[in-house]
């Protein structure tokens, strides 16, 4: 058989001559090993596969239910409970964010939410902070320039950098890759942008009798948590990058 022929050839080459090229030796042993590692290859491949059959019907139903929850949440302003549902739904599939770009309707819903929240700006300043999770979705879709361009007029200069998540998104808007795949140069931009937040006070804290600390920290940690748990880049969480942002802010 071909398998036996390859094995015998590799063994004969190793016995008959002196091979000095380490790359050739490595290639020979890899080829020899593959002849007897067919089952091992299948074992390593199985964890990376997903087959829909009678056994996985329940998993598929749960995934579709999570997708439905995520889509329904896009039409409302999210609070803490809604964010938990969103994070749990995203956890069903790390590739869901990549699939969002295929649905133009989601973009329309996001822009509608932004317009609606803007109408309530005078009445409730912090209502706009609830947009941070939606900003994440908005800026990570394929049509980022188009969507941002249509709502840019709503971005008040006083609101830019109001939350760490907004700042992270704004600092990499010109990056054609995943908008929240933060890198070291981008992290420096985050810190520089956040430095400008000192020009604003926090009306909510002042109204409750707290001293004016010079910037607005309300619910900032919650958005960092959302970033840490819900954002994936190449199948991996950006938790490490989020922690780097926090360390730089403290520094």
Automatic annotation (TrEMBL):
It holds the Pfam family RYDR_ITPR. Coiled coil: none annotated. One of its GO terms (molecular function) is ryanodine-sensitive calcium-release channel activity. This is RYR2 protein. One of its GO terms (cellular component) is sarcoplasmic reticulum membrane. InterPro entries: RIH_dom, Ryanodine_IP3_receptor, RYDR_Jsol. One of its GO terms (biological process) is striated muscle contraction. Residues 1-34 form the Ryanodine receptor junctional solenoid domain. Residues 152-251 form the RIH domain. It comes from the Eukaryota.
């Amino acid at each position: 058989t071909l398998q036996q022929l390859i094995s015998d050839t590799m063994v004969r080459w190793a016995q008959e001559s002196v091979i000095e090229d380490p790359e050739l030796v490595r290639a020979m042993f890899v080829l020899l090993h593959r002849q007897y590692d067919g089952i091992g290859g299948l074992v390593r491949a199985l964890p990376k596969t997903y087959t829909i059959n009678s056994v996985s019907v329940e998993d598929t139903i749960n995934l579709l239910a999570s997708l439905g929850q995520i889509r329904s949440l896009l039409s409302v302003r999210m609070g803490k409970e809604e964010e938990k549902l969103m994070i749990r739904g995203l956890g069903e599939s790390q590739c869901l964010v990549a699939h969002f770009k295929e649905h133009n309707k989601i973009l329309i819903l996001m822009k509608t939410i932004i317009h609606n929240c803007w109408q309530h700006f005078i009445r409730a300043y912090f209502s706009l902070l609830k947009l941070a999770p939606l900003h994440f979705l908005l800026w990570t879709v394929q049509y980022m320039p188009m969507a941002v361009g249509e709502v840019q007029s709503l971005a008040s200069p006083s609101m830019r950098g109001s939350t760490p998540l907004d700042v992270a998104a704004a600092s990499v808007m010109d990056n054609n890759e995943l908008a929240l795949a933060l890198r070291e140069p981008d992290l420096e931009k985050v810190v520089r942008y956040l430095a400008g937040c000192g020009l604003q006070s926090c009306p909510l804290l002042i109204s409750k009798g707290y001293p004016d600390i010079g910037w607005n920290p309300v619910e900032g940690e919650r958005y960092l948590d959302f970033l840490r748990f819900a954002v994936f880049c190449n199948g991996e969480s950006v938790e490490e990058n989020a922690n780097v942002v926090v360390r730089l802010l403290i520094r």
